[in-house]
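#lab-general

N.A. 3:47 PM
ok so I finally got the sequence cleaned up, no stray characters, all 308 residues accounted for. can someone with queue access submit it? mine expired

B.Y. 3:52 PM
send it over

N.A. 3:53 PM
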Amino acid sequence: MSEAETPLILYVPGLLPKPAPALHSDALARCLLTGVERLDDPVADSIRRNAGSFDVVSWTFDFYGEHRDFGLDAEAIEDVVEQTEASPRDKAEARSWGRRITQWVYRLGDRLPFLIPHLVNERTEVHLRDLRRYLKNDNGCADHTRRMLKMPLRAAAESGRPVLLIGHSMGSVIAWDSLWELAHVDRAAVEIDLLLTMGSPLGQRYIQRRLKGADREGRARFPDNIRRWRNLSAIGELTAFDPWLANDFADIVQLGMVESLEDAALYNYFRLFGELNVHSEYGYLVNAVTARTVADWWRGHVELPPRC
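B.Y. 4:20 PM
back already:
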């Protein structure tokens, strides 16, 4: 299979600096392929053998001007690829009353934005600051970020490659805005075979009111270039504190603009320095729910031996 014929798994990370692109991409691919290999070894082998089948839109360096030290994450990544599922301890912490109360507080802030300065901690305030930079398009940063995603999407469309677009956290917002512009501004012949959002803030009212197309009516509100959409949210999520998108975006299905939109929950068992981080991109990618989604999609486009 030539690269021009190979299905493309394109990944868009979220906020905060990420490791240098090569290190980051290798770590992400390792997590994803570890999860896929456990469920469907022929798919994992096929993805590995086809160069260019997994790519990352490395937008964060241009946004922050720095890379994250990969050494900070290396040991935790080793641990999460060795662990095969969430432990009872992981599940208990994800469902703890502390997380549930924090989720409730965040939902309250989403409904009553004037309370946000009084409810969030310093770490969350940093995220909100960076989010506002994107939403305000400071110095054209949002336009530049979307161009970085549009380029490989256009190239894939020109080659006829099916695309699985994965957006983690803020990456799902960037994906939405880019797809909306491709559909309604650029009028580009781009189609996403499957949009996979993970730990997405798209359930937040604050975000929904600021998405591209939010001020439009009917079909003009939504991208028309997504065939299917699946949303994954980890139990205990504080970014995806409203984890269900099928109700918020029901109109996109009712209008016939996507064939399906489904939500699924999972346990993210990534730990950094011993602390459970249910929002981690590495934890999402290694998870069996993600792996099954990717493996099923890949088999829909590549003829392979049956699963063992």
